[in-house]
Amino acid sequence: MSDDIVIQTRALSKVYRDFWGRQKVRALKPLDLEIHRGEVFGLLGPNGSGKTTTIKLILGLLFPTEGEAIVFGKRSTDVSKNERIGYLPEESYLYRFLNAEETLDFYGRLFDMPAATRSERVDSLIKMVGLDKARKRQLQEYSKGMTRRIGLAQALINDPELILLDEPTSGLDPIGTREMKDMILRLKSEGKTVVMCSHLLADVQDVCDRIAILHQGELKELGRVDTLLTVADVTQIRARNLSPECQNEIREVISRNHGELMEMDNPSTTLEELFLSIVRDSEARPGRRANVEPVTSDT
Known about the structure:
The protein is of the alpha/beta class. The protein has two domains: about 5-95 and about 155-230 and about 270-285, Rossmann fold; about 235-265, no CATH class. The chain is about 30% helix and about 25% strand. It is built from nine helices and twelve strands. Strands 6-7-8-3-9-10 form a six-stranded mixed beta sheet, with helices on both faces. A four-stranded antiparallel beta sheet has the order 2-1-4-5, with helices on one face. The protein has a two-stranded antiparallel sheet with strand order 11-12. Strand 1 (about 5-15) and strand 2 form a beta hairpin. Helix 2 packs across helix 3 (about 115-130). GO terms for molecular function: ATP binding; ATP hydrolysis activity. This is Putative ABC transporter ATP-binding protein YxlF.
């Protein structure tokens, strides 16, 4: 596997069975994905589409029925990879009688971090997530948004190369949501790889480089956000310094009237419109599969 590829899944699938071994739910159909180093990757889908199952298979919390997931060149079931991963689950289960400093110090000890490094890391993360004034308060006094922030700090305590975020903006107000998105972009600028699940499509559109849309356990769409949202059969022209008489003219008229052509390209739809269109099409044509990008073989 190329060093540029952090996560690779090959025909990864998961079937949940009942007590007698009979198939109960096919949560994930054969999935082929490659997630590259340094990108923000969005995993989208309605409830029950297989997003959380995919994340748990990547983390090694579940065993695949078929196929495999490779993380940092190792099988997902190899626990040694976890020291390079940070994970923010949809619901953070933290010790509510501890304060922010004690919480992060506890998780730093689990990674066997030296005391001086741990103290510096705890202080910087608390400031990063905006909890400096609440660092001494017990977590049981935190609002949902504050709990989300300390959960992110806990996921970053080991300075991971790969961060998995499940609904990272859940419970945050508009300011907190913007700050969370800025933190994700900051992590990207530091060379981190971020994989996020979210139902808030505008948030994904703002920060993700590429997305995969799942529906009923099947990959329906995969690609760059800007490419998927481009409306290919419509041309959009933006210009200024044009008189009203020449506004309905085309490129030659703009030049003849000394106008400035500011932009001429394909307009974009929104991620929400793309998402709903794919889900509706999937329900109408359940056999349709995504045109997936090729999976790189081992080198």
